[in-house]
Design goal:
single chain, 454 residues, Nucleotidyltransferase, domain 5, five-stranded mixed beta sheet, 19 helices, 54% helix, elongated, RNaseH-like_sf
């Protein structure tokens, strides 16, 4: 059997509810999605692409600081799927391919944005002669690369990013106005519209961020006892780590747990296993805690919608059983930066597996030694007590001369025992009037017994 398969099989969670096995799709959740099917189809094609391609430029479109519709628009430009006249004609649409704005050249994508005189007037105003050797050029890819490369800093007051993507978007709107309505704006109006729209959008983003950061602490009552959980998983390591921390709003620790185990199927599996283990510990120790916290958004959506995560069905069944044992179970999302304690516990138990094993062995050895020592001490104190009791009897009832006789009745072993204790009793013994009253030693803590004699 393949070594890789053995690892996968060993890491699979075993259902405690004896549910029959079933097949799941190899996505994170185990559910089929068109995206994952497409990826498999692409991998199966396994075509080797020779030479440069524009994948990087296409990917970069999704990272622009603009609304999703403009990101998609840039992806269309780079992937040559924007419906300009030349592209429509190449797909069999019967249309006049000449640019409606200048009526000089064919309307290709590069012409529309970077070569049409109506567009170059916009760029000339924006750059005022700067970058003429670099932009705009005859290649759509060079021009896109320039736009992405933040070739221009913020132009309007309050705007934080380059306005170039917004200008390209508003040139497209101007082109559509001309094609569909016969209208055309002045270059300066196109620029002003683009900058205004960018300013509004960026302001709206900042307002949305500040609202969410203000409302967040209100949701979390700081006084309740909570349990934070985390899993630590690395594909190259044999073990995964689980950690949980239970405490109050003042970060006072009540209980915590850390352990390692054979590596689970995925990082998300180890998050789930950490939660289940924490729930089990909290329940079995009777700790009053019903509020659980994780930094994994996927763990929350899994718990809310178990049907969507067939790859976790065995663990989710276990979760159902455990959570039903809590009167008011809650699981909420906290930022990673707040979940440091559970994270540390999980991470250190994964990385310190050998050290933990050594410590566990040492602790067992130490416990055995202490037990042996306790037993030994009990025996010695028992002997000491017997001897002292006998000595006390002799002192209160007997004459001086009898002492030696009584003493001789002490077993040799007792004598040795007394000597071993420092022989203090013999030296203090002559105080005849003192009645020493020792309680019986009944095992347990010898110090407590000794203190009673004072
Ligand atoms: Zn044109």
């Amino acid at each position: 059997m393949d070594q890789e398969d053995i690892q996968i099989i060993r890491s699979m969670p075993i259902s405690k509810s004896l549910k029959p096995d079933h097949l799941v799709w190899h996505t994170k959740s185990g559910r089929y999605s068109v995206k994952s099917g497409y990826k498999v189809a692409q991998d199966m094609k396994a075509e080797v692409i020779v030479g440069p391609n524009c994948n990087v430029l296409m990917a970069q479109a999704w990272y622009l600081p603009v609304p999703p519709k403009i990101k998609h628009f840039f992806w269309q430009i780079v992937s040559a799927s924007l419906p300009v006249m030349v592209r429509l004609a190449s797909r069999g649409v019967h249309c006049d391919t000449v640019c409606k704005r200048c009526e000089i050249a064919e309307e290709s994508i590069n012409h529309t944005f970077f070569e049409c005189p109506r567009s170059t007037q916009v760029w000339e105003r924006v750059f005022d002669g700067l970058h003429r050797d670099k932009f705009p050029l005859g290649s759509i890819y060079s021009n896109q690369d320039f736009i992405y490369g933040k070739g221009l800093g913020p132009m309007a007051l309050g705007v934080t990013h380059s306005p170039l993507p917004w200008l390209v978007w508003f040139i497209w709107k101007d082109r559509n106005n001309k094609v569909f309505q016969g209208l055309q704006s002045e270059p300066i109006d196109i620029i002003n519209q683009a900058l205004r729209e960018q300013l509004w959008w960026e302001e709206a983003q900042m307002a949305a961020r500040s609202v969410s950061s203000v409302s967040e602490p209100v949701k979390i009552p700081e006084t309740t006892v909570r349990c934070q959980v985390d899993g630590s998983w690395k594909s190259t390591e044999q073990n995964s780590g689980l950690g949980w921390w239970c405490g109050d709003g003042e970060n006072q620790t009540f209980f915590l747990g850390a352990r390692y185990q054979h590596r689970s199927v995925s990082p998300l599996h180890s998050e789930m296993e950490a939660l289940l283990w924490a729930m089990e510990c909290i329940l079995s120790r009777g700790i009053v805690c019903q509020r659980f916290e994780t930094d994994s958004a996927e763990l929350i959506s899994m718990v809310q919608d178990p049907e969507e995560w067939p790859a976790f069905s065995a663990l989710l069944d276990e979760f159902q059983v455990l959570s039903a044992s809590f009167p008011h179970f809650t699981l909420s999302k906290i930022p990673r930066t707040v979940n440091v304690k559970a994270d540390c516990l999980a991470h250190s138990s994964r990385t310190n597996k050998e050290r933990i094993e050594d410590l566990e062995a040492n602790v067992t050895e130490l416990r055995e030694d202490i037990q042996k020592l306790n037993k030994d001490m009990n025996n010695r104190f028992q002997i000491l007590e017997d001897s002292l009791n006998r000595l006390a009897d002799t002192l209160t009832t007997g004459r001086e001369g009898d002492n030696s006789a009584t003493r001789s009745t002490l077993r040799t072993r007792d004598k040795q025992q007394l000597l071993a204790q420092g022989d203090n009793v013999n030296q203090n013994a002559p105080a005849r009037t003192v009645k020493l009253d020792f309680p019986r030693f009944k095992g347990g803590d010898p110090n407590a017994w000794l203190s009673k004699t004072k």
